[in-house]
Amino acid sequence: MKFTKMSGLGNDFIVINALEINKEIEYKNLAVKLCNRHFGIGADGLLIVEPSGIADIRMRIFNSDGTEAEMCGNGARCFAKYVYERGIVKKEKMTVETLSGVIMSEIIFNNGIVDKVRVSMGNPIFKASEIPVKTEKKSFINEPIKLNGRTYNITSVLIGVPHTIIFVDAIDENMVLNIGPIVEKLHIFPRGTNVDFVKVEDRNNITVRTWERGAGLTLACGSGACASAVAAAVTEKTDRNVYVHFKCGDLFVEWSEYNNVYLTGKAEEVFRGETSTV
Questions:
Q1: Catalytic-labelled residue, pool 35, 78, 221, 226
Q2: Which domains does the chain have, with CATH numbers?
Q3: 72 is catalytic
Q4: What radius of gyration do the chain's Cα atoms show?
Q5: Residues 6+ away with beta carbon under 8 Å from 241
Q6: Is the pLDDT of residue 278 over 80?
Q7: Which of 114, 116, 181, 193 could link 189 by a cystine bridge, Cβ 3.0 to 4.6 Å?
Q8: Residue 11: is it exposed, middle or buried by C-beta count within 10 angstroms (0-12/13-18/19+)?
Q9: Residues 6+ apart with CB under 8 A from 179
């Protein structure tokens, strides 16, 4: 089985073109095997290219623990580059079916070469019951919770997948590793949550580290960038358009006046190969 390794600022994915496969595959188990960094190819997630009856193409994404995710911003950018460069979809603006709905991806060129991808991530949802968050409140914005003897103010938003944002004075990776998995599985999040630790640099720049539901600490997170930017804006810490800085690069997030969120950044092919693991 052929595969391609892709990366969005170090958030890495294994891409498999199911259009070329003539047998049923259990992708949940395959994701666990292939994403293992010691005994597999190594990745944060597995992307599957499938046909769609409602869009130009369908993207499925499985986390490294085998769970299927609704959406992934970095994965969507890698996916769009992959299907465009292989002629699977020949449109520079393509529609992509995901579990969270149909999104629009736009290819951006530099000297005729695919340089970046701009993804329409849809509208952010703050309604607690839809994120979901178990609370009597209509939304969960800047709400205090106590963890390990310390109180944190958190903001939850659904943007493709659930995200919970914690604003910090400095990015501390030990905090991400210690607090992230606790928040991910808090009882108030029945579907779990991604956890974003955000340092506001100024009105147009934030730094983010994300503990991803089902994947753990990752070098970057596209939906996390969007959720962090929206949370920063709604709590009046930044403007609506911001640069989001991760460990290996930057993403640009726009929250339009029409409520749609756009994510722009680089996507890169790392290598191609074949595997007998099925």
A1: 221
A2: 2-120+265-271 (3.10.310.10), 143-262 (3.10.310.10)
A3: yes
A4: 18
A5: 204, 252, 253, 254, 255
A6: no
A7: 193
A8: buried
A9: 147, 148, 152, 166, 195, 197, 211
Q: Residues 35, 72, 78, 226: which is the catalytic one?
A: 72
- Within 10 angstroms of residue 169's Cβ, the number of other Cβ atoms is 7
Q: Residue 140's CB: how many other CB atoms inside 10 A?
A: 22
**Structure-block tokens of residue 211:** 């503990």
C-alpha to C-alpha distance for 22 and 4, rounded to whole angstroms: 18
**Residue type for position 89:** V
* Whole-number percent of the chain with pLDDT over 90: 96
The answer to whether 69 touches 60, Cβ cutoff 8 Å, is: no
Q: What is the pLDDT of residues 92-125, one digit of tens each?
A: 999 999 999 999 999 999 999 999 999 999 999 9
In this prediction, residues 238-251 reach a mean pLDDT of 97
Instruction: Give the up-direction half-sphere exposure of residue 269: CA atoms within 13 A in the CB hemisphere.
Output: 16
Instruction: Let me know if 78 is a catalytic residue.
Output: no
Q: How far apart are CA 33 and CA 44, in angstroms?
A: 12
Residue 277 has pLDDT above 80, yes or no: no
Q: Determine the Cα–Cα distance for residues 141 and 188; give it in Å rounded to an integer.
A: 14
